[in-house]
Design brief:
The chain is mainly α and 207 residues long. It is built from nine helices and five strands. Strand 4 and strand 5 form a beta hairpin.
Length: 207
């Protein structure tokens, strides 16, 4: 009997226990989240570290998200005990850029086609954006997953029309790269110019 039990235990090993929640680590990362959000000139009160998971699909692949930018302007970072402070900061840079893009998009949509924002961004045509592609592997996954026949347009609801967000995600990856590697990092000048215009207009709108 004991021999049979031993064989069963080898075949079906006990599950390892979930690591205990580290409240001190959570508090340290929540504090770092607030500081990094403020460093990107975004309201730290709108950023929260949460103990939950969120999954998304891209190109038929289901992945676990590190962060999320919500329609109400808030930023969620999903707590991971293995996430370093450096990785958390990169996540904040990415998500804060999504929110800045969203704010400029709302203003762009609210004005007429002859409005000042339409003139400011007129050079960034769908064809030129698609020709440039992404600035990172993750951004390029969004370009590869684009399903619509025509390329994405700046400030449109990309996910609804094409099932991915190539422009939005590329800009967020520019922000992440600039934080991670510094302003001297080599980024496609076309995307960098668009990124800087987005920041300028966001700062103006934010007052």
């Amino acid at each position: 009997m004991s021999s049979l039990l031993a064989r069963l235990l080898r075949r079906f090993p006990a599950r390892s226990a979930e690591p205990a929640f580290d409240a001190a680590d959570f508090a340290r990362k929540a504090e770092h989240l607030a500081a990094m959000t403020a460093s990107f000139s975004y309201d730290p009160a709108k950023a929260r570290l949460v103990r939950e998971d969120f999954f998304f699909e891209l190109g038929g692949v289901r992945s676990k998200a590190e962060g999320r930018a919500l329609p109400d302007g808030s930023i969620l970072v999903f707590y991971d005990p293995h996430m370093t402070l450096a990785r958390l900061a990169c996540c904040v840079a990415h998500e804060a850029q999504h929110q800045k893009y969203a704010r400029v998009r709302r203003a762009f949509e609210a004005e007429g086609e002859d409005g000042p924002l339409h003139e400011t961004f007129a050079a960034f045509t769908p064809e030129l954006l698609a020709e440039r592609g992404g600035v990172s592997d993750y951004a390029n996954e969004h370009w590869a997953a684009w399903r619509a026949e025509e390329p994405p347009r700046l400030f449109e609801d990309e996910r609804t029309r094409g099932g991915a967000e190539p422009i939005n995600e590329t800009l967020a990856e520019v922000a992440k790269a600039l934080y991670n590697f510094g302003p001297q990092t080599q980024i496609d000048p076309f995307w960098r110019a668009l990124y800087e215009l987005i920041l300028r207009e966001w700062a103006r709108l934010a007052g």
